Amino acid sequence: MNNNKIELLAPAGSFDTLKTAVNAGADAIYIGGSMFSARASATNFDNAQITEAIDYSHCRNVKIYVAINTLIKDEELKECIDYISFLNDIGADAIIVQDIGLVHLIRKIFPKLTLHFSTQSTISSIEDINALKNFDIQRVVLPREITIGEISQISKNCNLEIEAFIHGALCVSYSGKCLFSALNGGRSGNRGACAQVCRKKYLLEVDGKIINDKLSEYVLSPKDLNTSNSIDKIIQSGVTSLKIEGRMKRKEYIHVCVKSYRQLLDEYIKYGKISKQNIADANHNLNRVFNRSFTNGYILNSQGSNIINNSYQKPIGQVIGQVIEYNKKIKS
């Protein structure tokens, strides 16, 4: 693949965040509307805002992808198709979908509409992708659980665009297949209402004995993905789009993430490699915004304790010193 065509894809949960992502250097933005989005608790965009977002972005040569990546109920089909018709008319660059039944219907009504198959669909093999040929899918968003070796094999054996996550939150299960939230509290991640039960505290009991303590109660909470150290390897795997997760994140987070990866990607495009200094600068900046500590993720073959942060699941914050003594006053 021509490296000049590698896309940096940013999230936006509000219009302010979208403008931040555009100005930080994103090539494309993915957003959700007020309906059928897997991030229902984000601010999201009403129809007037989507129209404004597309106009704002297209004037700056940035694409807009709109997520309709929940499973659709039968009684919602008419409203959903009306919504897709609206998006088609105002020039959305692609629709991100999960529901294969909806894909089948879209292709009958909107044969030329660009479709991206969502990570919620858990398409993770060349056999899966080949099964989509009859639906004229333009892009597959691969799961965060897939490895770089698997991405390479897929990209070599299919002619679809490949999108892969490079930064942001990880799920403890395969996206789209986790029923924990629905079973635990009646809120389905496949309907955009994940309660993030994997981020809560749990006790581990074996043979009637609790085997974890208060320092290791977040047994299901993954660290956040950060691939800045090896972004060149991901580019070389044949991906089309480098995706940052975070439609519920603040604009400061989006600015830092997009700008950091923009600088890394631009250097790679220009020189075919990335300097250690640029990687160090990116990591310094990325550590200053929201993270639950970082992992290289499954994509770079991390596993087990390198994925889960069992001691703390809130933002880690920036290290400013080490407490060496405490006696009413702190000395650092």
Automatic annotation (TrEMBL):
Residues in the signal sequence: none
Record-linked InterPro entries: Aldolase_TIM (IPR013785), Peptidase_U32 (IPR001539), RibuloseP-bd_barrel (IPR011060), RNA/ubiquinone_mod_enzymes (IPR051454)
Domain of life: Bacteria
Pfam families, A to Z: Peptidase_U32
Gene3D superfamilies: Aldolase class I (3.20.20.70)
Protein name according to UniProt: Peptidase, U32 family
Source species taxonomy: Bacteria, Bacillati, Bacillota, Clostridia, Peptostreptococcales
